[in-house]
Amino acid sequence: MHDLTKVEFFYRLIQLLNYIQCLEGSSKSISMGDRTYVIFQFPVNSFLEFIGKPKTNHYQVKKLVEFLKSLQTIEPIL
Known about the structure:
The chain has helices at 2-22, 44-50, 58-70, and strands spanning 27-32, 35-40.
């Protein structure tokens, strides 16, 4: 079960990266020391529509929000 969760996480991450490539004008950069971070803002239901999930399904929205929050705990990749 743990491996399936990892596979689902990485699959969703790849979907998110593809979605971010399609976004225009919804990001801003912030610099902290010698690093620059990019912040993306988008409606969750827009991403759900992009991946082919029903954007009005409360369960799907909740799962996606949990996924997006989990990304905040990942260490930056250098």
